[in-house]
Each structure stands twice: as structure tokens, then as C-alpha cells.
Specification:
By secondary structure, the protein is an alpha+beta fold. The chain is 22% helix and 23% strand. It is built from eight helices and 23 strands. A hairpin with a 3-residue loop joins β11 and β12.
Length: 482
């Protein structure tokens, strides 16, 4: 009988991955630990190893397929044995990410840890940050996500109870906790099939189905997309593209895969799960331009190129402390607002593959020079495709420097689940009135996109005013640091 090569567990928050490239082909013989495929999870490219040696008899998940964790991606034969067709009970859990998918993958053997480009470990502290680092993504979530494994029920004996963390609380994904609350189920009594006994949505479903009591209908996963309804209540079909007659030879088609697919899913999630609003202000950068020019020689001696972003990041950290609602997220599964007392700022980086948002951690405790070093380091890794999972997750706010592309003004898409994102733009010479005189100022627009569920318009305006005051008087940044 063939052995199943499955998608390994890479981190608690990762539920699926896309096969970018197979490094082996059918008929190849591989050794234990040999890298067999390149996959993408949350914008991080990872190589996965073979957990055992043998011959690749059949590649189940083709390049471009999205496979859930523990889903079958290939069949391998030991010692040259012939592969037999897999039974229906061992059907692969491969699926393309679709808006209305509710399939649950079949149970698969535990998989080895992944060997990544960068350092991807068992992210036991991650919550729902995902996928969706917005228009970026991030910590991006796919529009269609199965948050759990398969419930271990049946005649094979009682399964173990849910695993617990160091505080004795059962391990479970937020969606599973929500369903358990709605059905008055003690989640500690539900067998968990995920890593370390973590309870998933499918575990809850299996538990409820095995319970003789009547149960209300289980709600769909939080990120399931429903088609909008027309005036007569019928669902509105998605727009269908049709090639104009006679122009077929002037079109080419490319599958939406890899980073582009993740960015697309993140944009849809941001659109569906934020009430996006915009506030704009203009800033006189004249003093900051002069300060940067004075500091450039000292920074160059330290081997660092200082742009305006490190100063903007410091001002943002100050404003987030003054307006904590801007430094928050909404947990869709629990219905709770999460206020954060850390200041991790995502920085949108334009790469050949697409927009990526690495995160500068603990901005409030770092100097302008340290922030500049972090931005340069992360931007370099992003363009080289060498970012680790932890370097694109855990943001509490994001900044996108669209001005580097020459933009005068933009309406940036929120990097969900953050509550807001700041767009910084081109600095232009413009006549302004200063002390009763018309002078030339170095002017720039700031645009703040924010989730109106969490932040009121007046509060957003005051947040931007706080930023403006600091950036127009950069000496105040030094005063606050002292």
C-alpha cells in the first residue's frame, strides 16, 4: 500500500498552503528529509521535506492547488512497492480556495515540522493575525477557511479530551469557541484533532452530530463569502468575463496563484470585515526635511540610509499611545475589541511578486536609527523572498509609502485585522502662509483609512492632528523620547 505524503503542520494559525512548485516528479525516488515541494503560506515561501524515503508514485496536489494542513499532496511507495488507488476514506483534502467551500479534509497522519526559508516555528502565540497582512495581507486569511481538523469519533474508542495551555484552558480556534458558546457546549469535553489536541470547527460539528439532543444549525465559518441579494431576494451572480468576439488571439490568461492570490483574498477580507472610512490632512515637512539633511552624514557613517519613514514611525507610535482605539482590532469570532499595548508597525514594501507588509516590532522603544535599520533589513528580505513568518505577522498598525511611487493622495486598504493604516505621499513644494507671509513649504498629504466600527471620525482626525504636530515640529519627538 502506498504511503500518504501530507501537508505538514507549520504553525497553529496556518490552516492551508498553496503548492507553488514541485521539486520532484512522479517516478523519482526521494530520501527522508529531502525537499519535495515549495509552498506558500501567508506570503511566506517554504520548502517541505519528505517525512520518509520512497518513490513518488502519484502527485495528488498539482501546482497552484490550495491544500489544507494534513491534506494528502502525494502518494509514495516504500521499497519500490506499487501504488494502489487511494480509497474513498483516504481522499485527498486538496481544494482550490473558493467562496462557498465547506468541505472538511479527511484525517491524515501527523506530519513532520517544516524546514523553511527563514525561521518558521510553532507559533503558539499567534491568534487570528493572518492572512491577511490587506491589500497586503497579511497576516492574510483566505476567503474560504476550514478552521479545524476532523472529529475523532466512531467505534475505535474514545478520543482524548481537548489539549490545554499552561493556564489549563482548552486549546481551540476562536470559531470553535464561538460555536461551543452558542450551543452551550463545554469545549473541554470535545476531543481535539488539531496540533496538541487543539479543537477545530469540524471537531465541534462532529461532537454536536454525535449528541442526541437537538441542536440549532451551526453557523458557517466567519470568512465565508455570501453572494449579495438583489431586490427580489435572489442572489446576484458574480460578474462573468466574456472575451469579445474575434479578440481571442489578443488575450492571454494567467492563473491567480501564489502571492497575488493571497493579496486578492486579503483585499476581499478587508472589504467585507471593515467599515473603511478616510480622513486626510496635510503636513508641512520643511523642518523635518532640514533635520534629516543634518542627520544624514552621521547616519551614513553608521552605515544606515535614513529616509522619512523612521521619523513617521516614531510619530505614529506616539499617536497610538495617545489614541489607543487606533491601536486595536476586532475579533470577529468572539465579538470582542482587542486593545494592544504593543506598537508593531507594518511597512508596505513593493516587490516584483506583489505588495508585502513586514512588521517593525516595538517601535516605541527604538531609536530612529534602529527603526531605519529594521526597515532596510525587512525591505531587503521582502524583495529577496526571505522573510520568516514572524516577520510579517503581529502588526498593530500599518504605514504605506505610496509617495515613493509619485502618488499625491490615496485611499489605502486596511491591513485587516488592524484598525487603521496610514498613507504617506509625495513631498511637493507649494506656496503656504507662514507667520503672515507667503513662503514655499515642503508639503505632503497624510491619509488615514480606519475601521469606523472601532474609531470615530473625530478621534481619527485628532490622531492625524497629533501626527501632524510632531512631524511639523520634529524636535518634539526628541522631547517625548526623553
Amino acid at each position: 500500500m502506498p504511503k500518504e505524503l501530507t501537508m505538514p503542520v507549520m504553525a497553529e494559525s496556518i490552516v492551508e498552503a498553496e503548492i507553488l512548485k514541485w521539486l520532484v516528479k512522479e517516478g523519482d525516488t526521494v530520501t527522508e528529509g529531502q525537499m519535495v515541494a515549495e509552498v506558500m503560506t501567508d506570503k511566506v515561501t517554504t520548502e517541505i521535506p519528505a517525512p520518509f524515503g520512497g518513490k513518488i508514485e502519484k502527485i495528488v496536489a498539482k501546482e497552484g492547488s490550495v491544500v489544507q494542513v494534513k491534506g494528502v499532496i502525494a502518494l509514495m511507495a516504500d521499497d519500490g512497492s506499487s501504488a494502489a488507488p487511494p480509497s474513498e476514506t483516504a481522499a485527498p483534502a486538496t481544494k482550490m480556495a473558493t467562496a462557498d467551500s465547506t468541505e472538511t479534509p479527511a484525517a491524515a497522519p501527523a506530519s513532520p515540522e517544516v524546514v523553511a526559508k527563514g525561521s518558521i516555528g510553532d507559533d503558539s502565540q499567534s491568534a487570528t493575525q493572518s492572512a491577511t497582512n490587506s491589500m497586503f495581507g497579511v497576516n492574510t486569511k483566505s476567503v474560504s477557511i476550514d478552521f479545524g481538523g476532523v472529529a475523532k469519533t466512531g467505534s475505535s474508542g474514545a478520543a482524548a479530551q481537548a489539549g490545554t495551555n499552561k493556564f489549563g484552558r482548552p486549546l481551540a480556534v476562536p470559531a470553535a469557541r464561538k460555536i461551543a458558546r452558542e450551543h452551550d457546549v463545554d469545549i473541554a469535553t470535545v476531543p481535539g484533532s488539531g496540533p496538541n489536541g487543539r479543537v477545530g470547527v469540524a471537531d465541534i460539528r462532529g461532537f454536536l452530530e454525535a449528541t442526541p439532543l437537538e441542536q440549532p444549525t451551526i453557523p458557517a465559518a466567519p470568512l465565508e463569502v455570501k453572494a449579495p441579494a438583489s431586490a427580489n431576494g435572489m442572489p446576484v451572480p458574480p460578474p462573468q468575463y466574456k472575451t469579445p468576439k474575434g479578440l481571442e488571439h489578443l488575450e492571454t490568461r494567467t492563473p491567480l496563484r501564489g502571492l497575488r492570490r493571497i493579496i486578492s483574498n486579503s483585499m476581499v477580507a478587508s472589504h467585507l470585515y471593515t467599515v473603511r472610512t478616510l480622513t486626510v490632512d496635510e503636513v508641512d515637512f520643511t523642518k523635518l526635511v532640514e533635520l534629516r539633511e543634518r542627520l544624514k552624514p552621521a547616519a551614513e557613517k553608521a552605515g544606515v540610509k535614513v529616509t522619512y519613514l523612521p521619523f513617521i514611525f516614531k510619530a505614529v507610535a506616539s499617536a497610538l499611545k495617545a489614541f489607543p482605539n487606533v491601536n486595536s482590532s476586532y475579533d470577529e469570532a468572539s465579538g470582542e475589541v482587542v486593545h494592544k499595548r504593543y506598537y508593531n508597525i507594518g511597512c508596505a514594501v513593493d516587490t516584483e511578486a506583489g505588495l508585502i507588509v513586514p512588521v517593525v516590532k516595538n517601535v516605541d522603544s527604538k531609536s530612529v536609527l534602529d527603526i531605519a535599520k529594521d526597515i532596510l533589513d525587512l525591505a531587503g528580505k521582502a524583495r529577496a523572498g526571505k522573510l520568516a513568518s514572524e516577520e510579517i505577522s503581529g502588526s498593530s498598525f500599518a504605514v504605506t509609502n505610496i509617495g515613493s511611487a509619485g502618488s499625491l493622495l490615496s485611499f489605502p486598504i486596511i491591513n485587516a485585522p488592524d484598525a487603521a493604516i496610514l498613507g504617506v505621499h509625495t513631498i511637493v513644494d507649494r506656496p503656504i502662509v507662514r507667520d503672515g507671509q507667503i513662503v514655499i513649504g515642503k508639503m505632503m498629504y497624510l491619509s488615514l483609512s480606519f475601521d469606523h466600527r472601532l474609531i470615530d471620525g473625530a478621534e481619527a482626525a485628532r490622531f492625524v492632528a497629533h501626527l501632524t504636530r510632531l512631524l511639523e515640529n520634529p524636535d518634539l519627538l526628541l522631547l517625548e523620547a526623553i
